[in-house]
Amino acid sequence: MRTRAGETRRRIVDAAYQLFYQGGFARVGVDAIATAAGITKRTLYQHFESKDALIAAVLDIQHELMLARIRQWADTTSGDRGDVVDALFAGLQQWASKRDWRGSGFTRAAIEFTDSPGHPARKAARRHKTAVEAVLAEALTESGDGDGAALARQLMLLIEGCQVLVLIHGQREYIAAAADAARGLVQSRLARSALREALATLREEPGSAAPPRRQPSAAR
After folding, report:
1. pLDDT tens digit string along 5-44?
2. Which of 23, 30, 152, 161 is most buried, judging by how many CB atoms fall within 10 Å of its CB?
C-alpha cells in the first residue's frame, strides 16, 4: 500500500516526466514541475534533493516501465527473425504515429547532457539501451540459428537512427526505410548461413575433394 508521501513522490515523478518529455530535461524547471504536481517547490525538494536526483528517479521508473513492455513484446513475438524484425518496426511505426511522440526520452536525455558524461541521465540512457539490446538479442537468438547479439546491435543502430531522422524531417518514412534495411540484414545472414551449410555438405560428400591448386607458370 502506497503511503501519502509515496503518492506525492509518484505524482512529482509523473508530472516531471510529462514536462521533461515535452519540453526537454534541461529546459524544464522545478517551478513548473511543482505547479504541475500541485505542490510547492519546498515540498518537491523534501522528496528530491536536486533536479538531477529527480531526473534520475524519472528515468529509473521509465526504464522499468519500458523494459517491461519490451519484454512483453518479445514474449509474444513468434516466428523467424524476419517476423521479429517486422513486428519490431511495426511497433515503432505505431508508437511514432502518436500525436505527442517526441522520440526516445532516453536518447534525448543523453543528447541534452552530452557535455556531462557522469550525469544521471547519461548513465540511465546507457543502462536502458544496453538492456533493450540484450532483450532484442535474446529474441533474435531464439528465432534463428546462432547468436543474435551482432544482429541486435545492427538493429539498434537502425532503430536509433530512424527515430532521430523522423524528428529532424518529420517524416515517418524513415522508419519504413530502416525496416527495409533490417530485412536486408536478416536475408543477408540467411544467405551466408545457407552458403556455409552447402559448402559443409559438399566437403562431407564421398569423393568430393578440393580442386587442385593451380601451379604457378614458369617464368619466360
Report:
1. 899 999 999 999 999 999 999 999 999 999 999 999 999 9
2. 152
Between CA 24 and CA 45 the distance in angstroms is 20
- Render pLDDT for 72-106 as a digit per residue (tens, 0 to 9): 888 888 778 888 899 999 999 999 999 999 999 99
> Rounded to an integer, what distance in angstroms lies between the CA atom of residue 32 and that of residue 29?
6
φ and ψ of 145, to 5 deg: -80, 140
The contacts of residue 121 (CB under 8 Å, 6+ apart) are 25, 55, 56, 59, 109, 110, 112, 113
Segments in the chain forming alpha helices (H): 4-23, 30-37, 41-47, 51-76, 81-96, 105-112, 120-142, 149-169, 173-204
Mean pLDDT for all residues in the chain: 89
CATH number listed for the domain at residues 59-199: 1.10.357.10
Give the contacts of 30 (CB within 8 A, at least 6 positions apart). 41, 44, 45, 51, 54
Q: Maximum Cα–Cα distance for the chain, whole Å?
A: 96
**Cβ–Cβ under 8 Å, residues 52 and 120:** yes
CATH architecture, domain defined by 1-49: Orthogonal Bundle (1.10)
C-alpha cell at 46: 523534501
- Sequence ranges of the domains in the chain: 1-49, 59-199
